[in-house]
Amino acid sequence: MKTNSSVLIIFTGGTIGMIKKENQYVPVKFKDLMSHFPELKKLNCYLEIISFNPPIDSANINEKIWIKIVNIIQENYMKFDGFVVLHGTDTMAYSASAVSFMFQNLNKPIIFTGSQLPIGVHRTDAKENLITSIEIASKRDYGKAIVPEVCIYFEYKLLRGNRSHKSNSNDFNAFSSHNYPPLAKAGIDIDYNFNYIRKSATKPLKVYKEIKNNIGVAKIFPGISKEYLKNVLSNMYFDAIILETYGCGNILNDKWIKNEIKQFIEKGKIIINKSQCEAGAINQTRYETGKFLDELGVISALDMTFEATITKTMLLLHDYPNQIIFKQKFQESLEFRAGAQWTNEEQEVLESRGQAPIVVNRIHPIVETAKSLLTYNSPQFRATAREDSDRDTAKVFSDLFQYIWQTSSGDEELKRIIDDYYVGGMGVMQVFQDPQADLGKGEVCLKSINPLDVYIDPNSKDIYARDAAHILVCKYMTDEYAELVYPDYMDIIEQSNPEPDNDLRL
Q: What pTM value is reported for the model?
């Protein structure tokens, strides 16, 4: 059978490659487990497998393993359309972050996945995670990868690798991305969030493999001893220290800690301020207890995950030990809304006009704070009965509304529309019926929509468009998908889309 794409599977180890033996899980060779995946034969995709021998428990992952993974991908980069890395969940976010920084100018997907239960267990999540990861890694449109970046796929969500964090050890929904939306969601179809997916690189691939691991981490907590922090900050082995601080970057402001931080930085070494909170961002100038860190030269991690902060520091330390250059490189490739909004050329133009380019986006922390306050508690829905006889019915509807909110990940969708509102002036949530959901039983669903894809009746006068005669929602789709969904309208579609190389916009 002729295949349309090819994917290399790299099996490092982890729960997905374990079997139960004498009341405990032990790793086995992944090739021995392929009999558990007959569905792979149905994929129109050529597969090859490279297995680590022996398999590695993810707790034993280190920088040498990252380099090994990168070497395998680099050696096979031109042979395959995409790559799937099977990895233990405990350190998957670290590995995905590291690999994302080690590869620059990617134009092919590298998807990390694994499972919470071994493949031999009846309720295992291994099959869905692996099969969908392969499908995403192999997906191309007009010869280009749909998702040309390093990602984690887990429990129906595709997350940016260096924005991911393992947040649950007991649930199938093990990974979160609090500060960046999912790149795709898998249901009946895989719904790609194209507005947040990186574009394919046009420059040659670059690979970085030099890693320095002489960094320390100090987590701040109430009652922390002076001796502990002094021992960390006076340790000459460390070239960089990551301080895990409270909230938006606050720390106790005793004189002694100011002196210790100052002395460490004056030695030419680096301190990074990373919030203990999973969501939100560092803002060192908001409170007095954080402001002195900014004044001393402590570098803000902005809204990076802990995993990304660690791995990016390891990679940058080798080439950029200088504090000023390190800070520039550490923050320059973050997203626009995190402050890296100027290219070198744009900075030169602004400076030639006598205008100072703003290098830290002050709006972003404010937006994140507002978003956190507005979504701190999940909405509670209550239907009110007009008559006593309708109380039971009202209770059913209240529970139904709450169920719809939970099954649609309403909290996450709400955060997105609030974000859209503050940035773009409008946030849109669509309520629709999915007849294919719940095994064909149908489901009412909620979903945030990119406000740039929403066109409201221009004659509408109401601020909430309640008097609008129509509201149009645009959707990107390929010719193939359009023909599948709208076979009766293909003549009209083709007439409106004369250029075959462009995606359809309906």
A: 0.69
